[in-house]
Design goal:
The protein is mainly α. The protein has a domain of about 25 residues. The protein is built from three helices and no strands. The protein is flat and about 70 Å long.
Length: about 90
Amino acid sequence: MAQPAFLYSLRSRLRSAPPPPHHRLQPSRGYHVELGAREKALLEEDVALKRFKSYKNSVKQVSKIGNALTFAVVLACSYELAVLATSTK
């Protein structure tokens, strides 16, 4: 069976098409470029924010306690569902 002419021309055009450019894969700023004055100023330690650093450890501790409580509640609910499922049989 012969191929229609439009399929033949479409396939030939697709085979001869150049590959798309990969300009989006390359970073816009090279790794060897030095930081500007604004970036350096933003990375410096700020004296006004130094007093808030003490909260960092307490936030981590509260987060860990919250995770443990969430795990305990999920475990208790699973246990209750398992007991309920086995007791009704």
